[in-house]
Amino acid sequence: xxxxxxxxxxxxxxxxxxxxxxxxxxxxxxxxxxxxxxxxxxxxxxxxxxxxxxxxxxxxxxxxxxxxxxxxxxxx
Length: 76
Description:
Blueprint: H1 3-9, H2 18-28, H3 33-40, H4 44-58, H5 63-72
Helix pairs in contact: 2-4, 2-5, 3-4, 4-5
């Protein structure tokens, strides 16, 4: 099985925290870390931390890849 397939067959996205889901949704709309931070009243560094956790949980290496995997998993 390809690495990509193993990530997609795992319901890892179900393990995203509620805040990570919100951050992922805002990222999917094209918002920068700074803009996400402003919208949520948190620091850009906190957004970056959430994004890094999202990437790990979704097996992604970029914002685009995370969004594409989330779309494929029906998370957003």
